[in-house]
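Problem 12. The chain below contains 87 residues. Write out its predicted structure in token notation.
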Amino acid sequence: MHPFYEPNRKALQSSDKSWLGLASMAMYLLFWAGALGVAARFAKENLPAAKEGCPQPDPAVGILRERYAKGEINAEEFKRRRADLRE
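Solution.
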């Protein structure tokens, strides 16, 4: 049971104080929404983006791979041209 409810059970049993349970839940929801918002903002500002850390693939090597896959060039030609592109 929620720690707020047990010591205050008698106060909550009367019908005029039943809103205290809802207010307590609302406060918890607001707290966690705020905490998650702060954490998300912190992560966005301080952690590197995934795209910045990973090198982008070379489009020329991609075209070379497509040509090799289609059979337009053989393995020796592929290796030679890939080595030329990496220099």
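Discussion. Residues 9-51 form one domain. Students who got a different answer should revisit the alignment rule from Section 12.3.
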